């Protein structure tokens, strides 16, 4: 499946035992039977055990911004993912190279044009963690259970002429929710929807935005279904497209890719 968002795509899963003992236990995760059946069907639709055993993804393609709803100039990228919570995305184009890297609850950015390498802001880290929370991988792997989320069945929705999607919803103890739509015909993932709140810089008021990912062009790679096109919409208007050219699964990915270099000269 693999549809991390390149603006980009579990909270820290490894925590020192002493720290865990000092924290209150997360609320028990809950799921209704109908929702669980839909999720299990979706797992089989994307490859079953073979999908669940994928540890790394190396993907190449183009990211296109849609300012004002119209496509801009595509930017080439290469994305390295090591599950569950490490990702490095490199963008190249216009003579520049930008590297965005996240590991657990921290991250760093390299900008070749500006000749800078710096830690990500708290907002940038928050955006990455939101991307992890809303990913299809989070739902299908069941990582959400560690955070005490609740899985429920929403119902069927119209998808296109003569087609329907089954919809399930994850709701976290902090109120954050994500809805996932799966094709009623074959169980394949089709959409991811959530609500985002941001401060309007003009009014200084918080505004709500409906965020939606449409998962398109499924391609089978060694028995695993991979989404090759992801369209992102905000309040019904397209804002970006991810178009993959190639995806390699379980290819060795060095830990050093995620480590912040000591200086610009050490960037690889």
SSE topology:
Elements (H helix, E strand, L loop, with lengths): L16 H6 L7 E2 L1 H14 L2 H4 L3 E10 L9 E8 L3 E8 L2 E8 L2 E6 L4 E4 L2 H13 L1 H6 L8 E11 L2 E9 L5 E7 L5 E11 L6 E16 L2 E11 L2 E13 L19
Parallel strand pairs: 1-8
Antiparallel strand pairs: 2-3, 2-14, 3-4, 4-5, 5-6, 6-7, 8-9, 9-10, 10-11, 11-12, 12-13, 13-14
Q: Can you describe what's shown?
A:
This protein is of the alpha+beta class and 268 residues long. It has one domain: Clam (outer membrane lipoprotein receptor (LolB), chain A), CATH 2.50.20. The protein has helices at residues 17-22, 33-46, 49-52, 122-134, 136-141; strands at 30-31, 56-65, 75-82, 86-93, 96-103, 106-111, 116-119, 150-160, 163-171, 177-183, 189-199, 206-221, 224-234, 237-249. Strand 6 and strand 7 (116-119) form a beta hairpin. The longest helix has 14 residues, at 33-46. 26% of the residues are buried.
């Amino acid at each position: 499946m693999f549809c991390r968002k390149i603006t980009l795509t579990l909270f820290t899963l490894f925590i020192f035992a002493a720290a865990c003992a000092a924290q209150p236990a997360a609320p028990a995760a809950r799921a209704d039977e109908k929702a669980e059946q839909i999720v299990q069907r979706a797992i089989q639709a994307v490859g079953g055990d073979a999908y669940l055993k994928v540890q790394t993804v190396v993907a190449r393609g183009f990211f296109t911004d849609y300012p004002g709803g119209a496509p801009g100039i595509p930017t080439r990228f290469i994305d390295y993912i090591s599950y569950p919570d490490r990702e490095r995305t490199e963008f190249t184009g216009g003579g520049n190279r930008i590297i965005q890297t996240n590991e657990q609850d921290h991250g760093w950015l390299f900008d070749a044009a500006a000749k800078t390498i710096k830690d990500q802001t708290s907002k940038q880290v928050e955006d990455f963690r939101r991307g992890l929370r809303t990913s299809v991988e989070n739902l299908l792997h069941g990582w959400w259970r560690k955070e005490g989320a609740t899985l429920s069945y929403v119902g069927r929705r119209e998808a296109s002429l003569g087609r329907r999607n089954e919809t399930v919803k994850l709701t976290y103890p902090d109120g954050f929710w994500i809805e996932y739509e799966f094709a009623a015909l074959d169980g394949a993932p089709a959409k991811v929807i959530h609500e985002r709140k941001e401060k309007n810089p003009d009014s200084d008021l918080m505004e709500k935005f409906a965020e939606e990912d449409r998962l398109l062009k499924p391609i089978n790679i060694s028995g695993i279904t991979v989404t090759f096109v992801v369209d992102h919409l905000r309040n019904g208007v397209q804002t970006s497209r991810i178009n993959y050219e190639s995806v390699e699964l379980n290819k060795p990915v060095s830990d050093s890719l995620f480590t912040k270099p000591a200086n610009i000269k050490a960037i690889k």
